Amino acid sequence: MEDDLIEKSVESLRHSKYTFAFTGAGISVESGVPPFRGKNGIWSKYDPKVLDLDYFYANPLEAWKVIREIFYDYFGKAKPNPAHSILGEWEQKGFLKCVVTQNIDNLHQAGGSKKVYEFHGNAQKMICTKCSYRFPADEVDFDKLPVACPKCGGLVKPDFVFFGEAIPSDAYAGSLDAARNADVCIVIGSLGEVMPAAMIPMEAKRNGATIIEINPETTNFTNQITDYHLKMGASDAMKILNDKLFSN
């Protein structure tokens, strides 16, 4: 049965004029980045209030201590895995139009992807809450918390979406454009539980796209919009698809 689903997925990809990938935490688990939700997720160990915007403003030092531990002491060591790299290669070949990701770990860019719509922002960038100055996270001295803006001295936060913040408008618009133009959407490692991000594959389906889902688990997408569900890890599935598409 799995072989049949793989062959059908490959045929859909071969005939596609516009393919994009929609990725969630599952693609980065193989790089050592734990998911936020679930039994061993980040929020089983930390209180999610540290990413609540109001809490952050009221308690910047306490919030920053936890943010540093989660996103910079640990996440910063993660490297792209074969699934990230294959998506980057597909884009370079003109086979993949873009990646829409819920992840903030920068691993798609590290894996070679150029056109990435980051629905929830990027932890490798910082933004000043006072003057909006943006700069790379690797310029920050994390021994001095909370982080201060090098331009105006204002409070700095990671440039990803906190609870209470809006989705970046350019990422939202680009993601919707992909969903409305695609004839294939590959959903990798997303449970479909976070809104409004989960609307993107659903919008693609509404516009006639074939949905190929790569996830060992059954998700909110599986029985609603998925056409072909490959119950595999991200790297294993992407290696198989890549070999079948480009081995000749």
UniProtKB/TrEMBL annotation:
Keyword line: Metal-binding, NAD, Transferase, Zinc
Keyword Hydrolase: no
One Pfam family matching this protein: SIR2
MF terms in GO: histone deacetylase activity, NAD-dependent; metal ion binding; NAD+ binding
PROSITE patterns named among the record's database cross-references: SIRTUIN
Record-linked NCBIfam families: PRK00481.1-3 (NF001753)
Gene3D superfamilies documented for this protein: SIR2/SIRT2 'Small Domain, TPP-binding domain
Top-level division of the source organism's lineage: Bacteria
The name this protein goes by in its record: protein acetyllysine N-acetyltransferase
InterPro entries: DHS-like_NAD/FAD-binding_dom, NAD-dep_sirtuin_deacylases, Sirtuin, Sirtuin_cat_small_dom_sf, Ssirtuin_cat_dom
Active-site positions on this chain: H120
EC numbers for this chain: 2.3.1.286
Record: residues binding Zn(2+): C128, C131, C149, C152
Span of domain Deacetylase sirtuin-type: 1-248
Top-tier EC class: transferase
